Amino acid sequence: MEGGFFGFLETNAIYVVLFIVLAIWFGIFLFMLNTDKKLKEILNELKGKSNEK
Amino acid sequence: MIWKIVLFVLMTFVIIAGIAFPIVPQPSAWYQFPLIPGLEEKAKIIFFHVPTAWLSVIAFLMAMIYGIKYLRHQNLDDDAKSNAALQLGMVFCVLATVTGSIWAKFTWGAFWHWDPRETSIFILLLIYGSLFALRTAVENEDKRARLSAVYSIIAFLTVPFFIFIMPRIMTGLHPGSANDDTSGPVVDFKMNRNMQLVFYISLIAFTILYYWMWSVRYKVLIIKDTLTKKLL
Protein backbone atom coordinates (compact mmCIF):
# COMPACT_ATOMS: atom_id res chain seq x y z
CA MET A 1 0.00 0.00 0.00
CA GLU A 2 2.80 2.37 1.01
CA GLY A 3 4.80 1.46 -2.10
CA GLY A 4 1.67 2.08 -4.14
CA PHE A 5 1.27 5.55 -2.65
CA PHE A 6 4.89 6.51 -3.34
CA GLY A 7 4.61 4.92 -6.77
CA PHE A 8 1.58 7.14 -7.42
CA LEU A 9 3.51 10.24 -6.33
CA GLU A 10 6.45 9.24 -8.52
CA THR A 11 4.28 9.19 -11.63
CA ASN A 12 2.14 12.17 -10.55
CA ALA A 13 4.76 14.59 -9.20
CA ILE A 14 2.33 17.49 -9.63
CA TYR A 15 0.58 16.36 -6.39
CA VAL A 16 3.85 16.72 -4.48
CA VAL A 17 4.02 20.31 -5.79
CA LEU A 18 0.39 20.79 -4.77
CA PHE A 19 1.01 19.59 -1.18
CA ILE A 20 4.09 21.81 -0.84
CA VAL A 21 2.29 24.92 -2.18
CA LEU A 22 -0.71 24.22 0.09
CA ALA A 23 1.61 23.85 3.10
CA ILE A 24 3.28 27.19 2.23
CA TRP A 25 -0.14 28.87 1.82
CA PHE A 26 -1.39 27.54 5.20
CA GLY A 27 1.86 28.80 6.77
CA ILE A 28 1.45 32.28 5.25
CA PHE A 29 -2.21 32.42 6.33
CA LEU A 30 -1.46 31.44 9.93
CA PHE A 31 1.48 33.86 10.06
CA MET A 32 -0.73 36.70 8.79
CA LEU A 33 -3.49 35.87 11.31
CA ASN A 34 -1.03 35.77 14.18
CA THR A 35 0.75 38.98 13.14
CA ASP A 36 -2.52 40.86 12.62
CA LYS A 37 -3.74 39.82 16.08
CA LYS A 38 -0.52 40.89 17.78
CA LEU A 39 -0.46 44.23 15.95
CA LYS A 40 -4.03 44.99 17.03
CA GLU A 41 -3.04 44.32 20.66
CA ILE A 42 -0.01 46.63 20.39
CA LEU A 43 -2.08 49.39 18.73
CA ASN A 44 -4.74 49.12 21.46
CA GLU A 45 -2.02 49.28 24.13
CA LEU A 46 -0.47 52.36 22.51
CA LYS A 47 -3.88 54.03 22.22
CA GLY A 48 -4.66 53.18 25.87
CA LYS A 49 -1.38 54.75 27.01
CA SER A 50 -1.93 57.94 24.98
CA ASN A 51 -5.49 58.22 26.39
CA GLU A 52 -4.16 57.84 29.97
CA LYS A 53 -1.85 60.80 29.39
CA MET B 1 -13.07 37.94 10.01
CA ILE B 2 -15.47 36.65 7.33
CA TRP B 3 -13.31 38.05 4.51
CA LYS B 4 -10.30 36.19 5.91
CA ILE B 5 -12.23 32.91 5.74
CA VAL B 6 -13.33 33.82 2.19
CA LEU B 7 -9.70 34.51 1.28
CA PHE B 8 -8.58 31.18 2.76
CA VAL B 9 -11.23 29.22 0.84
CA LEU B 10 -10.68 31.07 -2.47
CA MET B 11 -6.88 30.82 -2.39
CA THR B 12 -6.98 27.12 -1.40
CA PHE B 13 -9.36 26.48 -4.31
CA VAL B 14 -7.12 28.41 -6.73
CA ILE B 15 -4.03 26.46 -5.62
CA ILE B 16 -5.78 23.08 -5.97
CA ALA B 17 -7.46 23.95 -9.29
CA GLY B 18 -4.49 25.81 -10.73
CA ILE B 19 -2.03 23.02 -10.01
CA ALA B 20 -4.00 19.78 -10.11
CA PHE B 21 -6.73 20.32 -12.75
CA PRO B 22 -5.58 18.62 -15.99
CA ILE B 23 -5.01 20.34 -19.33
CA VAL B 24 -6.47 18.28 -22.21
CA PRO B 25 -6.94 18.93 -25.96
CA GLN B 26 -10.75 18.54 -25.84
CA PRO B 27 -12.12 19.40 -22.36
CA SER B 28 -15.30 17.52 -21.56
CA ALA B 29 -15.49 17.63 -17.74
CA TRP B 30 -15.93 20.77 -15.61
CA TYR B 31 -12.47 20.39 -14.07
CA GLN B 32 -10.54 20.16 -17.35
CA PHE B 33 -8.70 23.07 -18.92
CA PRO B 34 -8.12 23.44 -22.68
CA LEU B 35 -4.73 23.02 -24.28
CA ILE B 36 -3.40 26.41 -25.42
CA PRO B 37 -1.02 26.07 -28.42
CA GLY B 38 2.47 27.17 -27.50
CA LEU B 39 1.80 27.11 -23.75
CA GLU B 40 0.52 23.54 -22.97
CA GLU B 41 1.01 22.54 -19.27
CA LYS B 42 3.00 25.72 -18.70
CA ALA B 43 -0.23 27.74 -19.14
CA LYS B 44 -0.97 27.00 -15.46
CA ILE B 45 1.45 29.72 -14.44
CA ILE B 46 -1.20 32.25 -15.50
CA PHE B 47 -3.06 31.64 -12.19
CA PHE B 48 -0.06 32.81 -10.16
CA HIS B 49 2.17 34.95 -12.41
CA VAL B 50 -0.49 37.33 -13.77
CA PRO B 51 -1.98 38.13 -10.31
CA THR B 52 1.47 39.08 -8.97
CA ALA B 53 1.95 41.51 -11.89
CA TRP B 54 -1.61 42.77 -11.37
CA LEU B 55 -0.93 43.38 -7.66
CA SER B 56 2.22 45.36 -8.38
CA VAL B 57 0.09 47.72 -10.54
CA ILE B 58 -2.56 47.98 -7.78
CA ALA B 59 0.14 48.62 -5.17
CA PHE B 60 1.86 51.34 -7.22
CA LEU B 61 -1.54 52.93 -7.88
CA MET B 62 -2.28 52.94 -4.13
CA ALA B 63 1.15 54.43 -3.45
CA MET B 64 0.31 57.26 -5.84
CA ILE B 65 -3.16 57.83 -4.33
CA TYR B 66 -1.76 58.03 -0.77
CA GLY B 67 1.06 60.21 -2.10
CA ILE B 68 -1.55 62.66 -3.43
CA LYS B 69 -3.42 62.45 -0.08
CA TYR B 70 -0.20 63.23 1.78
CA LEU B 71 0.48 66.29 -0.40
CA ARG B 72 -3.06 67.56 0.27
CA HIS B 73 -3.28 66.95 4.04
CA GLN B 74 0.39 66.60 5.16
CA ASN B 75 -0.58 63.60 7.32
CA LEU B 76 2.35 61.22 7.92
CA ASP B 77 -0.04 58.26 8.23
CA ASP B 78 -0.73 58.69 4.50
CA ASP B 79 3.00 58.52 3.86
CA ALA B 80 3.18 55.26 5.88
CA LYS B 81 0.30 53.85 3.79
CA SER B 82 2.01 54.94 0.56
CA ASN B 83 5.30 53.44 1.74
CA ALA B 84 3.63 50.13 2.68
CA ALA B 85 2.04 49.97 -0.80
CA LEU B 86 5.40 50.73 -2.42
CA GLN B 87 7.15 47.96 -0.48
CA LEU B 88 4.49 45.40 -1.37
CA GLY B 89 4.43 46.60 -4.97
CA MET B 90 8.15 45.98 -5.17
CA VAL B 91 7.79 42.50 -3.63
CA PHE B 92 5.07 41.52 -6.12
CA CYS B 93 7.02 43.06 -9.02
CA VAL B 94 10.03 40.89 -8.07
CA LEU B 95 7.74 37.84 -7.75
CA ALA B 96 6.28 38.53 -11.22
CA THR B 97 9.81 38.82 -12.62
CA VAL B 98 11.03 35.61 -10.94
CA THR B 99 7.96 33.50 -11.86
CA GLY B 100 8.06 34.84 -15.43
CA SER B 101 11.76 34.11 -15.65
CA ILE B 102 11.31 30.50 -14.49
CA TRP B 103 8.49 30.09 -17.03
CA ALA B 104 10.75 31.58 -19.75
CA LYS B 105 13.45 29.00 -18.97
CA PHE B 106 11.06 26.14 -19.78
CA THR B 107 9.28 27.87 -22.69
CA TRP B 108 12.00 29.85 -24.44
CA GLY B 109 15.09 27.99 -23.19
CA ALA B 110 16.72 30.68 -21.03
CA PHE B 111 15.81 32.69 -17.94
CA TRP B 112 16.24 36.07 -19.63
CA HIS B 113 15.88 37.29 -23.23
CA TRP B 114 15.45 41.06 -22.96
CA ASP B 115 12.01 40.55 -24.44
CA PRO B 116 9.95 43.82 -24.36
CA ARG B 117 7.90 42.45 -21.41
CA GLU B 118 11.05 41.51 -19.47
CA THR B 119 12.72 44.81 -20.31
CA SER B 120 9.68 46.83 -19.24
CA ILE B 121 9.41 45.10 -15.84
CA PHE B 122 13.17 45.49 -15.34
CA ILE B 123 12.85 49.27 -15.96
CA LEU B 124 9.93 49.39 -13.51
CA LEU B 125 12.06 47.63 -10.89
CA LEU B 126 14.78 50.23 -11.44
CA ILE B 127 12.31 53.15 -11.23
CA TYR B 128 10.75 51.96 -7.98
CA GLY B 129 14.04 50.63 -6.58
CA SER B 130 15.50 54.13 -6.84
CA LEU B 131 12.53 55.44 -4.85
CA PHE B 132 13.67 53.33 -1.88
CA ALA B 133 17.19 54.70 -2.30
CA LEU B 134 15.68 58.19 -2.23
CA ARG B 135 13.65 57.45 0.92
CA THR B 136 16.64 56.12 2.82
CA ALA B 137 18.81 59.08 1.72
CA VAL B 138 16.57 61.75 3.30
CA GLU B 139 16.48 61.97 7.11
CA ASN B 140 13.85 64.68 7.61
CA GLU B 141 10.55 62.79 7.62
CA ASP B 142 8.42 65.60 6.16
CA LYS B 143 10.86 66.21 3.34
CA ARG B 144 11.14 62.45 2.76
CA ALA B 145 7.36 62.05 2.65
CA ARG B 146 6.97 65.00 0.26
CA LEU B 147 9.70 63.81 -2.11
CA SER B 148 8.41 60.24 -1.99
CA ALA B 149 4.85 61.38 -2.74
CA VAL B 150 5.94 63.43 -5.76
CA TYR B 151 8.19 60.59 -7.00
CA SER B 152 5.46 57.95 -6.61
CA ILE B 153 3.04 60.14 -8.63
CA ILE B 154 5.53 60.65 -11.46
CA ALA B 155 6.66 57.00 -11.34
CA PHE B 156 3.10 55.71 -11.66
CA LEU B 157 2.63 57.67 -14.90
CA THR B 158 5.10 55.23 -16.50
CA VAL B 159 3.33 52.08 -15.19
CA PRO B 160 0.47 51.85 -17.76
CA PHE B 161 2.97 52.37 -20.56
CA PHE B 162 5.43 49.71 -19.33
CA ILE B 163 2.83 47.13 -18.28
CA PHE B 164 -0.02 47.53 -20.77
CA ILE B 165 1.20 49.43 -23.84
CA MET B 166 4.88 48.83 -24.65
CA PRO B 167 4.86 44.96 -24.48
CA ARG B 168 1.76 44.88 -26.71
CA ILE B 169 2.88 47.22 -29.48
CA MET B 170 6.36 45.72 -29.81
CA THR B 171 7.26 42.36 -31.29
CA GLY B 172 8.46 39.82 -28.75
CA LEU B 173 8.26 36.30 -27.33
CA HIS B 174 5.74 36.93 -24.55
CA PRO B 175 2.10 35.92 -25.21
CA GLY B 176 0.17 39.00 -26.30
CA SER B 177 3.06 40.68 -28.16
CA ALA B 178 2.38 42.46 -31.48
CA ASN B 179 3.59 39.46 -33.53
CA ASP B 180 1.81 36.84 -31.42
CA ASP B 181 -0.54 35.02 -33.80
CA THR B 182 -0.72 31.74 -31.88
CA SER B 183 -1.63 32.61 -28.32
CA GLY B 184 -3.08 36.08 -28.81
CA PRO B 185 -4.96 37.56 -25.88
CA VAL B 186 -4.83 34.38 -23.80
CA VAL B 187 -7.55 35.29 -21.31
CA ASP B 188 -10.20 36.26 -23.87
CA PHE B 189 -9.82 33.71 -26.63
CA LYS B 190 -7.83 30.69 -25.53
CA MET B 191 -9.26 29.86 -22.10
CA ASN B 192 -12.55 28.05 -21.62
CA ARG B 193 -15.07 29.32 -19.08
CA ASN B 194 -13.77 27.09 -16.25
CA MET B 195 -10.24 28.34 -16.76
CA GLN B 196 -11.41 31.95 -16.89
CA LEU B 197 -13.37 31.40 -13.67
CA VAL B 198 -10.33 30.05 -11.82
CA PHE B 199 -8.26 32.91 -13.25
CA TYR B 200 -10.67 35.61 -12.06
CA ILE B 201 -11.05 33.93 -8.64
CA SER B 202 -7.25 33.95 -8.46
CA LEU B 203 -7.19 37.70 -9.18
CA ILE B 204 -9.80 38.32 -6.46
CA ALA B 205 -8.02 36.09 -3.89
CA PHE B 206 -4.63 37.71 -4.53
CA THR B 207 -6.18 41.19 -4.31
CA ILE B 208 -7.73 40.38 -0.90
CA LEU B 209 -4.39 38.92 0.26
CA TYR B 210 -2.64 42.08 -0.91
CA TYR B 211 -5.11 44.28 1.00
CA TRP B 212 -4.48 42.24 4.17
CA MET B 213 -0.70 42.39 3.77
CA TRP B 214 -0.90 46.14 3.11
CA SER B 215 -2.99 46.81 6.23
CA VAL B 216 -0.59 44.74 8.37
CA ARG B 217 2.45 46.46 6.87
CA TYR B 218 1.21 50.01 7.38
CA LYS B 219 0.22 49.19 10.97
CA VAL B 220 3.81 48.00 11.53
CA LEU B 221 5.17 51.24 10.05
CA ILE B 222 2.86 53.39 12.21
CA ILE B 223 3.73 51.44 15.40
CA LYS B 224 7.44 51.65 14.58
CA ASP B 225 7.15 55.40 13.99
CA THR B 226 5.18 55.96 17.23
CA LEU B 227 7.63 53.95 19.34
CA THR B 228 10.66 55.67 17.78
CA LYS B 229 9.19 59.09 18.60
CA LYS B 230 8.48 58.00 22.20
CA LEU B 231 12.03 56.76 22.69
CA LEU B 232 13.63 59.95 21.32
How would you describe what is shown here?
The complex is a heterodimer of chains A (53) and B (232). Chain A has 53 residues and is mainly alpha-helical. Chain A has a domain at 22-53. Chain A is built from two helices and no strands. Chain A has helices at residues 2-11, 14-52. Chain A is rod-shaped, with a radius of gyration of 22 Å. The mean pLDDT of chain A is 86. Chain B is mainly α and 232 residues long. Chain B has one domain (48-231). Chain B contains seven helices and two strands, in the order αββαααααα. Chain B has helices spanning 2-20, 46-73, 76-107, 116-137, 141-169, 186-190, 193-231, and strands at 23-24, 33-34. Chain B has a two-stranded parallel ribbon with strand order 1-2. In chain B, α1 crosses α7 (193-231) and α3 packs antiparallel against α4 (116-137). The longest helix of chain B has 39 residues, at 193-231. Chain B is globular and about 65 Å long. The two termini of chain B are 36 Å apart.
